[in-house]
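Quick one: co-fold with adenosine monophosphate.
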Amino acid sequence: MKDHTQDLKSYITDVPDFPKKGIIFKDITSLLESPEGVSLCLESLLSELKNKQIDKVVAIEARGFFFGMLLAQSLNVPFVPVRKPGKLPRKVITQSFDLEYGSDVLELHEDAIQSGDKILIHDDVFATGGTAEAVCKMVESLGGQIVQCNFIMKLDFLEGSKKIGAYPVFAAMRY
Ligand code: AMP
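Sure, here it is.
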C-alpha cells in the first residue's frame, strides 16, 4: 500500500500553547472536515488490521469516538465506549491515570467485554501513553485480549510506548 503519511499530515493543524503554554496541540478537526482525509486515515488504520481477528473496538472519549466508530463499523464488530466518570449508566469499572497535562479517571461498562474477546483499542493521539495504559488495564481486568492499540497519530518524542510496550501499537502518523 502507498505510504500516505505525508498526505495525512497535511490535514492536521498544530495549535501552539493549547490547552497550556508549551503544549503543541494536534488538532484533528481539520482532518474531520475532509471526507478525503477521513477515508485516507481510515484506510491506513484498517490496512494494519488485515488478517487480524478483532471482536470489539474499544475507543476513548471523546476524540477516540470519531474513528473508533468508523473502525467498528468497517470491521462489522461492536463499538465499546470508554467514558469520563458518571456518563455510563450501567455497572462500570474505573481507572485513574496521569496525563501529559493533568490527571483523569475513565470508566468502562463491566458487561461490555467478555473473557477472551479480542480487542482493538483506539484513540486519536498517543502522547505519554497514560490514557492507553489505563484502558489496557481495564480491558485486561475484564479478560479481554488486546490485539492492537491504534491511533490517528503518535507523538514519538513523549516515549509513551514504554507504558504499553507489551502491546502492538500502530499510528497512521508519527511525530
Ligand atoms: P496520553 O495519555 O498522554 O497519551 O494522552 C492521550 C490523550 O490526550 C489523547 O486522548 C489525546 O486526545 C490527548 N492529547 C495529549 N496530548 C495531545 C496533543 N499534543 N495534542 C492533542 N491531543 C493530545
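If it helps, The chain has five helices and nine strands.
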